[in-house]
TrEMBL record:
Keywords: DNA-binding, Transcription, Transcription regulation. GO terms for molecular function: DNA-binding transcription factor activity; sequence-specific DNA binding. Residues 187-285 form the HTH araC/xylS-type domain. This is AraC family transcriptional regulator. The keyword Transcription regulation applies.
Amino acid sequence: MKRENGIQPRRLLNEQYMELNRSFNIFVQRLTKPSPLHWHEFYEMCVITGGTGSNVLNGVAHPLERGSLFLLTPADFHEVYPDPDSVLHVYNVIFSEEMLVGELRELLLYGNASRMIRLEEDALLRVEQEYKIIDREVREPKTAQRLMVKGALERILIELLRQREISSADRNLLAVEASASGHVAIANALPFIHHHFREPLRLQDAAREASLAPGYFSTCFRQTTGLTFQHYLQNLRIEFGAALLLASDRPVTDICYASGFRTLTHFERVFKSKYGCSPRQYQQQGR
């Protein structure tokens, strides 16, 4: 799984992989060669139905085998390697953030609980049927196509939720969210923040997404997450930068701006405060 120096990860865009006015697509793949390092503008959820290999997610390798299921967000980098003499059989559904709503979105995106699991055989067979429903709806569109796809997608995501461990901290956070309407509004804004944090995102933009006044949004945000909006945003950016440092050989300056920082000095100062070394040292240690 050694990557050649100088490789630049591709960003896969909605318009390249989804038809106009459609917020989802599905691919049935047989991988015999590595899928190079890339990241997405959309969410991606894959299940492995045959073969073995590795999914290198944000610089960390995870084994793949029949039953492996993983969800990727727009903040994730990954590359897939089939094992020698193996063919990876993959159902791959992609979808935009508008398909991930409500309580399910909150459970999936809060905290550090794993979005990569291995399904037992009975669960895998259920999930395969849901992917086949999505595949059929994409190939042969009928009335209420989006509702059918959304239902199948949600059932797959529920299988992911039920078979992973959610930390007590996540449960406590969700309990806090449910206790006040302001916190529910914050929960609704978080996927927007996670999708756009690399852009010049302002507190006012997030407050508008939550339908709250900026001052009240700021108060609710800190009560819900334990962090100020700017600190939360900075954490997203620096963790994204750290993942990209491990996943690619891009220059530190490029990674700084790709992560949403405006100056290299600020990026390096925040990075050293969090990780105890410079970005260059961190990248070299990961090779």
